[in-house]
Amino acid sequence: MRILVTFRSTHAALEAESALMIAGLKPEILPVPRELSTSCGLCIGLEMPDHQRIAALLGEWQIDYGAIYAVEHTDNQRHYQVIFENSAPNEG
Predict the structure, then answer these.
(1) Mean of per-residue pLDDT scores for the chain
(2) Per-residue H/E/C for 25-65
């Protein structure tokens, strides 16, 4: 499953990229799709079936993210579904 993680700042997106790489994952920095509303213009894309692992890693590193979305492809279009929303920003 393809997921996207949105962030509240560019700094948080870049920090998350480093943390996820250290964890052995392959994050891809991408522009936020127009369909998603965020405070930051960057998001991270991952081929990752376990969004809970991503949320836990970002929490451990105290990285402030907005939400995790599942990306679905139907009829040559992308659809985004929120699968986890970070309701409490990290203070770090």
Answers:
(1) 90
(2) CCCEEEECCCCCCCCCCEEEEEECCCHHHHHHHHHHCCCCE
Which residue would you say has higher pLDDT here, 89 or 86?
A: 86
- 22: which 2 tokens? 């250290």
Query: 20-46: string of b/e by CB count within 10 Å (b at 16+)?
Result: beeeebebeeeebeeeeebebebbbbb
Q: Indicate whether 62 pLDDT > 90.
A: yes
Q: Kindly provide the b/e burial profile for residues 59-87, where b requires at least 16 CB atoms within 10 angstroms of the residue's own CB.
A: eebebbbbbbbbbeeeeeeeebeeebebe
User: Rounded CA gap, 21 and 6, in Å?
Assistant: 17
* CATH architecture group of domain 2-85: 2-Layer Sandwich (3.30)
